[in-house]
Amino acid sequence: VEYIYSDSSTLCAVSNSSSRVFRGDYINFQKRNLAYFNATELKSNINLREAKFSNDIIAKTYQPSTIIDSPRNKIFDFGLNHTGGIKCHIKGKKGTIVTVKYSEFTNPDGSLNFMSSAYSDFKEEEFVPPFYSCKANKYPVIQKNTYILSGDIDYIEPLFSYRCYRYIQIECNNDIEIIDLESALIHSDIKQISTFESSSKMLNHFYNCYIQTQFCNLHSGLTTDCPHREKIAYTGDGQIVSEALLRNFDAVSFFDKWLDDVIASQGIDGYVPNSAPDMAGGGGHFWGYAITAIPLNIYKMTGDKSFLTRSYNAMFKWIKYLSKTRGENGLLTSNGLRWFLGDWLAPEPIKSDTIYVNTIAFCLSIENFLKVNKILGNPEDLQLIHLLEKTKIAINEHYFNKDTFSYSSDNQGETLLALYADVVEPQYLSQVRNSFINKYKENDYHIDTGIVCTPILFEMLSKLSSDDIALRLLIQQDYPSFAYMLKNETTYPEHWSKKWIAYKQNDDGEAILEPTGDVSHCHPMFGAIVPWIQ
Question: Each residue of 101-129: pLDDT tens digit?
Answer without folding.
Answer: 999 999 888 889 888 877 665 555 444 44
